[in-house]
């Protein structure tokens, strides 16, 4: 079976190491990511029913609530386990963001909530966004997520091990090169917010905006969950959600979010 030229570490990570169907439910920062992604997408989605192509949709965690909201979702992902899991939620097929089977202008919304951060080569990200732009109808919505360039700096403080020699090397390397290719995760690319916006604009999308998904307080919530104690209270999580909303007008705070979500539109003419 073709692996779409995907890095073996990506297939291994999602096929064997983690169960992606649980990622956004099992940790406090995962739940923050899910709640804020929903909140932001619902702000821009056309009214249901509308068609959504969920590229790199994983096990279908976002497809599930979108179907619940009345959208006709089709999911594409290169990992067989994901396609099998997502098939219980919506039509799902094996595929790659860089070479979509969907026809030109055939979807109201195309979302890529994952593929860009597994494509470290800028030409691959450019190709994935060009495909999204080809497949979305004029005036339609493209939403693309990225992992923030600085996310690992904050994350490894929450595990209270950033000061160890073992961690400083790999995290410094991500900060310096924007690429991770080692243990514990897959081959991954870490975006700066302005770079993500430029990539969407360069693909011909207009009205581009970038949001911090979890906001500047996500790592406080994660630290409370990781360190001994009773874990984050509902009030702390509600405060972090509020901080994410209050931070939206201040682009300098984008650097502190774990994920970024870019929104763009296909030109009408
Ligand atoms: C962190 S998961 C995100 C899954 C889901 N979209 C979500 O937000 O919960 C990243 C997803 O991107 C997919 N992916 C990686 N490289 C891809 C590519 N070249 N084309 C399409 N999907 C890809 C992976 O298989 C995985 O399902």
Q: Please summarize the sheet with the most strands.
A: 9 strands, mixed
Tertiary shape: globular
Count up the helices: 11
Oligomer: single chain
* CATH C-level name: Alpha Beta
Tell me the count of domains: 1
Helix-and-strand structural type: alpha/beta
Question: How much helical structure, as a percent, in the residues?
Answer: 40-55%
The N- to C-terminal Cα distance equals 40 Å
Residue runs with pLDDT of under 50 for 5 or more positions: none
CATH topology-level fold name: Rossmann fold
- Named at the architecture level, the CATH assignment is 3-Layer(aba) Sandwich
**In CATH, what is the homologous superfamily?**
Vaccinia Virus protein VP39
Radius of gyration: 18 Å
What amount of the residues lies in strands? Answer: 15-25%
**Overall mean pLDDT score?**
95
In N-to-C order, the SSE pattern is HHHEHEHEEHEHHEEHEHHE
Give me the secondary-structure topology:
Blueprint: H1 8-17, H2 23-26, H3 28-44, E1 51-55, H4 61-68, E2 72-77, H5 80-86, E3 92-94, E4 107-112, H6 122-135, E5 136-148, H7 151-158, H8 165-177, E6 179-180, E7 188-191, H9 193-202, E8 206-212, H10 218-226, H11 234-247, E9 259-265
Helix pairs in contact: 7-10
The structure holds S-adenosylmethionine.
Residues 6, 10, 14, 20, 24, 55-58, 61-62, 77-79, 82, 96-98, 113-115, 118-119 line the site of S-adenosylmethionine (SAM).
Explain this structure to me?
Strand 4, helix 6 (122-135) and strand 5 (136-148) form a beta-alpha-beta unit. Helix content is 42%, strand content 20%. The protein has helices spanning 8-17, 23-26, 28-44, 61-68, 80-86, 122-135, 151-158, 165-177, 193-202, 218-226, 234-247, and strands at residues 51-55, 72-77, 92-94, 107-112, 136-148, 179-180, 188-191, 206-212, 259-265. The protein is built from 11 helices and 9 strands. The chain has a single domain, classed as 3-Layer(aba) Sandwich (Rossmann fold). Strands 1, 2, 3, 4, 5, 6, 7, 8 and 9 form a 9-stranded mixed sheet that branches. It starts with 7 loop residues before the first helix and ends with a strand. The radius of gyration is 18 Å and the shape is globular. Helix 7 packs parallel to helix 10 (218-226). With 269 residues, the chain is of the alpha/beta class. S-adenosylmethionine binds at residues 6, 10, 14, 20, 24, 55-58, 61-62, 77-79, 82, 96-98, 113-115, 118-119.
């Amino acid at each position: 079976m073709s692996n779409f030229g995907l890095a073996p570490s990506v297939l291994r990570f999602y096929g064997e190491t983690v169960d992606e169907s649980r990622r956004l439910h099992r940790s406090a920062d995962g739940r923050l990511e899910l709640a804020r992604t929903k909140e932001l997408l619902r702000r821009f989605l056309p009214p249901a029913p509308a068609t959504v192509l969920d590229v790199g949709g994983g096990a279908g965690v976002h497809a599930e609530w979108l179907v619940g909201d009345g959208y006709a979702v089709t999911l594409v992902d290169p990992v067989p386990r994901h396609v099998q899991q997502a098939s219980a939620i919506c039509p799902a097929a094996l595929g790659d963001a860089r070479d979509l089977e969907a026809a030109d202008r055939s979807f109201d919304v195309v979302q890529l909530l994952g593929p860009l951060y597994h494509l470290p080569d800028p030409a691959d990200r450019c190709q994935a966004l060009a495909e999204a732009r080809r497949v979305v109808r004029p005036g339609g919505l493209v939403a693309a997520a990225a992992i923030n360039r600085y996310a690992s700096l904050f994350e490894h403080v929450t595990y209270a091990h950033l000061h160890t020699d073992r961690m400083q090397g790999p995290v410094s390397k991500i900060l310096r090169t924007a690429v991770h290719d080692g243990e514990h995760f897959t081959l991954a690319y870490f975006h700066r917010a302005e770079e993500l916006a430029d990539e969407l604009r360069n693909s011909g999308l207009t009205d581009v905006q970038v949001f911090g998904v979890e906001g500047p307080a996500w790592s406080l919530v994660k630290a409370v969950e990781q360190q001994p104690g009773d874990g984050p209270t509902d009030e702390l999580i509600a405060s972090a959600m509020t901080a994410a909303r209050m931070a939206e007008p201040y682009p300098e705070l984008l650097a502190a979010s774990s994920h970024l979500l870019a929104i763009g539109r296909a030109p009408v003419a």
